[in-house]
Task: inverse folding
């Protein structure tokens, strides 16, 4: 819950209840979704194009891992043996 609160403080504009139709559900202009400033090893590229490329690679790697897990689960269901 703490991490989500921190992400919300970084990414969202504080609501102004006198102009709530303009400030409610508004992201900050300098916020990039998913980038909350956590990079202790300094691996994030400074170039936005290189960052987008790295982000795409991470997404593809995660999708491949999910397919692998789905394959292992399907194998267990079919042959009734654990992996």
Result:
């Amino acid at each position: 819950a703490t991490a989500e609160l921190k992400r919300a403080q970084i990414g969202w504009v504080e609501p102004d209840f006198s102009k709530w139709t303009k400030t409610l559900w508004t992201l900050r202009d300098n916020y990039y979704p998913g980038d909350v400033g956590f990079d202790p090893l300094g691996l994030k590229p400074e170039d936005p194009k290189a960052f987008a490329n790295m982000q795409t690679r991470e997404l593809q790697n995660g999708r491949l891992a999910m397919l692998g897990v789905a394959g292992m689960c399907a194998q267990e269901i079919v042959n009734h043996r654990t992996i």
